[in-house]
Amino acid sequence: MTDETGPWLVVGLGNPGREYAGNRHNVGFMVAELLAVRLGGRFGRYKRVVADVAEGRLGFGGPKLVLLKPQTYMNLSGGPVAALAQFHKIPVDRVIAVHDELDIPYGQLRVKQGGGEGGHNGLRSMSKSLGTKDYVRVRFGIGRPPGRQDPADFVLSDFGTAERKELEFLVDRAADMVESVVSKGVEPTQNAYHGA
User: Fold this and answer.
1) What is the pLDDT of residue 196?
2) Of the listed 25, 88, 120, 194, which one is catalytic?
3) What pLDDT, in 10s, does the model give residues 68-79?
4) pLDDT digits over 116-163, tens only?
5) Helix axes 161-184, 186-193, angle to 10 degrees
6) Is residue 55 within 8 Å of 105, Cβ to Cβ?
7) What are the recorded GO MF terms, alphabetically (predicted)?
């Protein structure tokens, strides 16, 4: 039985370092940073879990959100996630991963609970460390690379000029979706956002 008043862990997936800041693979960091601003929190280094963490409440007296940006590089993201979930006693159904998604066209956002990792190293690491795939995902569509570009190179490149025109709006919408999952649940969020 989940404690209805307990905290939520929101994991923005990305890679640390300035050279990665604008990459498609770092969109999870972008959403987490916007949520920190909305909550009036500020990211600080959590040395015990090799991560940047911010905390705040959703609305006045609302649920506590623990925002996490792992600083371990994508393929080792799971360690900090599992450690922080354990420290705050957060059950897996209150863990939300925000990540880039190759299998969804750019401009589309999707929410789901559980499922596969689609070759995403951050999700794979999280599933392994948490011992389950049943956490919530806010999936930020980046689309497939053009031509024969290697997907690994594509996710580690910056958003294109045309994409950047929409990026701020989409990051804002992804943050709205995280808040909706916390306050209303996965299914109502899917109903509200997937048709839009």
Assistant:
1) 58
2) 25
3) 999 999 999 999
4) 998 899 999 999 999 999 999 999 999 999 888 999 999 999 999 999
5) 140
6) no
7) peptidyl-tRNA hydrolase activity
Check the annotation: does 121 bind a ligand.
yes
Q: Which one, of 109, 126, 120, lies nearest residue 152 by Cα?
A: 120
pLDDT tens figures, 27-47: 999 999 999 999 999 999 987
The answer to the question of whether 135 is labelled as a binding residue is: no
In percent, the amount of the chain with pLDDT more than 70 equals 97
- 170-195, pLDDT tens digit by residue? 999 999 999 999 999 999 999 999 97
Handedness of CA 24, 29, 32, 34 (dihedral sign): negative
Q: CB burial class (10 A; 0-12, 13-18, 19+) of residue 57?
A: middle
| Whole-Å CA distances, 140 to 58, 60, 109, 164, 186 | 22, 28, 5, 14, 16
The pLDDT value recorded for residue 146 is: 87
Task: Name the token pair of 59.
Answer: 């609305």
Neighbours of 153 (CB within 10 A): 9
- Answer yes or no: is 75 a known binding residue: yes
User: What is the rounded distance in angstroms from the CA atom of residue 152 to the CA atom of residue 32?
Assistant: 23
Average pLDDT in the chain: 94
**Quick check: is 25 catalytic?**
yes
